[in-house]
């Protein structure tokens, strides 16, 4: 292999045909070398996807009684590594055969990774309850613990775990120190810390794929364009259109003009300033303004002189039969 790093993933598809697009997007996004897959339902089968550039061979020595499994051997600079995708049906009642299959899986000569769905639950693994398959796995694990006789390897393992934890903690502390130093609270914007805390607390929400014109959109850029187009179409204002309310008002005005051909000379007899003031008191503050962008709260605060001017305008409109648009 040209690279010393293998990126391996386990995918429990539960019908790979229905999630083909999601799987393709996942592989491209994370640049996976090997993926071990579990398909749909009992006897649905297992699969392993591997890049053509990686040398491998199929394991033909896997003979199981109840477990469905497939494996490959991959040649690496550190030696051969076996990757096995396994599935144990939850309806299986033959626990003896299941135990023999598990022993077969764990007695491989080379290093190995076993992924899949074994349908084994146990309270020691933080499951709500235990089933028979979980009890079998726990028993095999306890036997393995009792028969570990190489104390030097165990001490070396514990030492390596301690060193790894120390390095991880040191790396995390260094990263936090760099981030905190980079935020200069003496700048003009003193809310950098609170913005940073808000970003950390807000978790990313997964957005499922969108469909438009029989096309599935996966990338955030494609989804954003479709959502933008939808909102532009939904909130497009047609200024030249006449609403049903406007038609009703125009009809009432025409009826008023036709029934009042000769109006009094005094406009004050048609509309009064007190009527305008009473109507303004009744309108609600939290209503969106019209095309003039004057909200109701502003209209309520008009001085008496402005109400007098409005009164003259309304009366002249009634008298002349002319209503400006």
UniProtKB/TrEMBL annotation:
<feature type="domain" description="Endonuclease/exonuclease/phosphatase">
    <location>
        <begin position="81"/>
        <end position="139"/>
    </location>
</feature>
<dbReference type="InterPro" id="IPR036691">
    <property type="entry name" value="Endo/exonu/phosph_ase_sf"/>
</dbReference>
<protein>
    <recommendedName>
        <fullName>Endonuclease/exonuclease/phosphatase domain-containing protein</fullName>
    </recommendedName>
</protein>
<dbReference type="Pfam" id="PF14529">
    <property type="entry name" value="Exo_endo_phos_2"/>
</dbReference>
<dbReference type="InterPro" id="IPR005135">
    <property type="entry name" value="Endo/exonuclease/phosphatase"/>
</dbReference>
<dbReference type="GO" id="GO:0003824">
    <property type="term" value="F:catalytic activity"/>
</dbReference>
């Amino acid at each position: 292999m040209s690279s010393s790093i293998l990126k391996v993933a386990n995918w429990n598809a539960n019908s790979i045909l229905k999630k083909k697009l999601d799987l393709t997007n996942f592989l491209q996004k994370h640049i996976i070398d090997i993926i071990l897959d579990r398909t749909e339902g009992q006897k649905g089968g297992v699969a392993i996807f591997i890049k053509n550039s990686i040398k491998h061979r199929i394991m033909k020595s896997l003979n199981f009684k109840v477990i469905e499994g497939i494996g490959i051997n991959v040649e690496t600079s550190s030696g051969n590594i076996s990757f096995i995708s396994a599935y144990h049906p939850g309806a299986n009642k033959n626990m003896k055969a299941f135990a023999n299959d598990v022993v077969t899986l764990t007695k491989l000569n080379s290093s190995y990774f076993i992924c899949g769905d074994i349908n084994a639950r146990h309270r020691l693994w933080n499951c709500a309850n235990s089933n028979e398959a979980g009890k079998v796995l726990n028993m095999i694990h306890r036997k393995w613990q009792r028969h570990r006789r190489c104390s030097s390897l165990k001490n070396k393992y514990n030492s390596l775990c301690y060193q790894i934890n120390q390095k991880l903690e040191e790396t995390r502390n260094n990263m936090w120190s760099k981030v905190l130093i980079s935020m200069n609270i003496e700048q003009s914007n003193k809310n950098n810390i609170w913005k940073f805390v808000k970003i950390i607390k807000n978790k990313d929400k997964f957005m499922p794929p969108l469909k438009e014109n029989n096309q599935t959109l996966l990338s955030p850029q494609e989804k954003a364009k479709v959502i933008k187009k939808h909102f532009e179409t939904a909130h497009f204002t047609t200024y030249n259109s006449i609403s049903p309310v406007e038609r009703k008002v125009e009809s009432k005005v025409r009826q008023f003009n036709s029934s009042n051909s000769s109006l009094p000379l005094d406009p004050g007899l048609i509309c009064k300033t007190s009527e305008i003031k009473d109507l303004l008191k009744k309108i609600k503050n939290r209503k969106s303004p019209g095309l003039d962008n004057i909200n109701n709260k502003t209209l309520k605060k008009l001085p008496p002189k402005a109400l007098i001017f409005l009164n003259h305008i309304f009366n002249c409109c009634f008298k002349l039969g002319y209503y400006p648009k």
